[in-house]
Each structure stands twice: as structure tokens, then as C-alpha cells.
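TODO from last week: model Putative transcriptional regulator, AsnC family.
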Amino acid sequence: MEPMTDTEEEALKLIQSNPEGVLQSELWKLLNIDSRKCSRVVKKLVDSERIDRIEFKSNGVKTYLLKAKKSAVNPDLLLAGGELIPCIGCEEECSVQDCSHLMDWMYQLAIEEFTDQ
């Protein structure tokens, strides 16, 4: 995947920070760029499958609603010592700081990382 420009990164961050989406007609103003450059930025983000572009009418004017795509979680990040993170499916009501199951899992992860070095 081609690296993003600063403007593309800024646009993506703005879109990701608004779960309900950002109107393309507003994005170029927020980025302080002209609408043509904004269209090119949006096209690159759509083509790289980072965002969705949905036709939208705002005050009777056609524009596009831009929403960030959710990326899949790497399943390797949920495993330590071949064990799934204990929070998945856990029904106990605890805090992250006081969960012995989570602490044991994190220690296992740290031990694995240390022994791999």
C-alpha cells in the first residue's frame, strides 16, 4: 500500500474521529484545502479501502458522507502462550487493574516476548 501524504493522514484522522461520518462538502473546509484537492484525497482514501463514500443530500444539495472503515483485528494480538485473552467472553465484573486472569495473561505475553529475544 502506498504511503499517505500529510493531508491524507489528517483527512483520515478527521473522518475516524467522527463515527457518524463527515460530509465531503465540509471536509475540505476543515482541512483548509480547495474542493478539487479534497476530491483527490477522498478518492485515494476510497481506493485504498480506508473509507466509504456514501451519497448524501444536505439541504437538498448532493454531497457525500465519508465514514472510516473498521479494520479487522489481528487474531495474534488476542493470543499469549496459545491462550486467548481472558476478557473475551468473560462474565466477571472487574476492573482492568484488579483482574487476576488478565494479569496472568499479560505476564505470559511478557515472558513469551522476553524468551523470543
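Done. Residues 75-116 form one domain.
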